[in-house]
Each structure stands twice: as C-alpha cells, then as structure tokens.
Amino acid sequence: MGFWELLVIAVVGLLVLGPERLPGAIRSVMRTVNSVKQFGQQMQAELSDNLRVHELHQKLKQAEQKGFLDLTDEEKAAVAELKKAAEDVNKAGTAPTKNTTKHHDDSSGT
C-alpha cells in the first residue's frame, strides 16, 4: 500500500470512528494482523517440516529398494538423519522421570 492509500484509510477511519475510538481500533487491527502473520509463520514451518519428512521418507524407500547397498550421499544422509531421530525418540521414551511424590517414614510406632 502506498502513502496516499494509507492516508485515505486514516481519514475515513477518523471520520467513521472519531478521534476517541480510532487509536483502539488501530491497536485491534494491529493485533489481528500480527496474529495472522504469526499463524502464517507457524503454518509455513509446519509445511516445511512435513515436506522434509516426506523427502526423508522417499529417500528411505529408495535406500530400502537398494537393500541399503550402493547408496547415494543423499540417501546415506537421510538414513543417518532418520537413525539419529529414532535414537532421540528412544532416549526420550526411556529417560528416567523424577519421582515427585514424597515418601513418609512412619517410625513413630502409631
């Protein structure tokens, strides 16, 4: 948007909302725009992650078809990345958890 378009929008907003409500309306619009931008960034990151997973899956299929022999550098890298991800998941699944319950030693004899 150019300067003149913004100026026209500001003048119309001032005439419609008045000087008392215009700052609040501007803040509300800015919050909405920021929320939409943040949502767009999250969706872009999620799509990027999904595309990466699909790419790794395709490379893994190619490696399996070759019996994991004579792999290209891309296939080797994909297999290594998947192995590392699997190790990370296994470590997270077997990590000891802290026991947050307190044990009471009832030695009072009652």
3D architecture notes:
With 110 residues, the chain is mainly α. Helices cover 77% and strands 0% of the residues. It contains two helices and no strands. The protein has helices at residues 3-65, 73-94. Helix 1 crosses helix 2. The longest helix is centred in the N-terminal third of the chain and has 63 residues, at 3-65. The relative contact order is 0.05. This is Sec-independent protein translocase protein TatB. It is a single-pass membrane protein. InterPro entries: TatA/B/E, TatB.
Strand content: under 5%
Q: Mind summarizing the main beta sheet?
A: none
Class computed from helices, strands and strand pairing: mainly alpha
Number of strands: 0
Helix and strand element order: HH
Shape: elongated
Cα end-to-end separation: 80 Å
Helical fraction: over 70%
Number of helices: 2
- Give Rg in angstroms: 29 Å
What is the average per-residue confidence, as pLDDT, rounded to a whole number?
Answer: 86
Low-confidence blocks of residues: none
Any chance you could write out the topology, listing elements then pairs?
Elements: H1 3-65, H2 73-94
Helix pairs in contact: 1-2
Which key phrases capture this entry?
2 helices; elongated; 110 residues; mainly alpha
